[in-house]
């Protein structure tokens, strides 16, 4: 009764304790590794024979067998033995022995496996390795590949978006500069030829500042009435703005006035209390580019000798014996000073000259600040006291109402925007600097280089993504095959152990069901 009732008690064996359980129940010996080594050596010599014989291959084609001898297990050998035993190779003699040498070797391998249940120990070790290491490793590898596919896809999109942004920046820069971007340097050189037209447009548009300049002059004249402020009235207040409105884009000033540089000789002469030089003499010397140093010094000394100050100034000059005249001849060649123009900026028009262009911008900013001050006086209460002092002036002098001042501010800002236009500034720099063209060309080409680099990276990421996806795809059947094989081996072990315990139900805990 007790034995019959025990048949219904299941046997639960944990996977990590399976080998120890088999050894402790004396189903396997502790030196099963040595017995298994002998079996593996026998299989290694037997497997090539199975591969060489075409008839055997045709018989075994229906069975899913490993391709290497190291992967052969007891369950595979048993399947091979059963298939070949049903074929003509399974013929036996009168003594019940196999006539085929291959079947004899295979039968010997099966006996070595079944001796001391070595096959149970081997299969237990196999399912433990598969469930503990191989299957989790493949799953982890698949997870990493999935992450790589997602990451490479995101990086590819980011690189493509960056490439598009660089192309867009390049296109916008070319649009601002007025070029197509096919041949940057040549197109920039051709684009610089439109500068005169842009200058003419600004000069013609500057006419809108005439009423404003007139009002400013009247305001300054009214404020400083009765005082000497001649330098702040008329065209001297905003000279470049007046020049642009009156003469257009012409050089400033209209007549060139080169200045003579002071020399050591000139300074020495000026330090000796020379007679006062008239305005006519100063103007004549200002426009003279060739100065005869011999005549200048001689003339000044003669004047000093004739003047009254000659009695009080001792030059410590000893008169030589004989001839009382001093020989001032310094040589056959006259010493002359010639002023050379270091740059041709002075010959350029008022807008083409960088110095006058900057000065004109400053004058416009002064106008803008002046108007903003007037607007603040009209709109701010704490300015009322200072504004009441101007109530005696005419409305035209006070720029009218708030709306009129705002219109003037808009006019000045319009001219400033034309002068500060990005395209105009770039073309002016191209015209003024010989190195700016190369620097601007390299800057634009660098954006294209970055765009191409981003496109190459995007393409590279796409390739890596496809490779990762292909490798991930290959792991699916490998994992399924490993899970299927492990499930079959686990089921076989449970059946074998159950057979030894009168068909009691055996369950390996933590087995294949835990990883699927």
Summarize the structure.
This protein has a domain at 262-340. Helix content is 62%, strand content 2%. The chain has helices at 2-6, 18-24, 32-52, 54-60, 74-85, 101-114, 118-177, 184-191, 195-205, 210-223, 239-247, 264-270, 279-286, 293-306, 354-379, 384-388, 402-419, 422-432, 436-500, and strands at residues 11-14, 506-509.
Would you give an account of this structure?
There is one protein chain. This protein is mainly α and 516 residues long. It has a domain at 262-340. It is 62% helix and 2% strand. The protein has 19 helices and two strands. It has helices at residues 2-6, 18-24, 32-52, 54-60, 74-85, 101-114, 118-177, 184-191, 195-205, 210-223, 239-247, 264-270, 279-286, 293-306, 354-379, 384-388, 402-419, 422-432, 436-500, and strands spanning 11-14, 506-509. Strands 1-2 form a two-stranded parallel ribbon. Helix 7 packs antiparallel against helix 19 (436-500). The longest helix has 65 residues, at 436-500. The protein is rod-shaped and about 145 Å long. Residues 257-343 have low confidence and may be disordered.
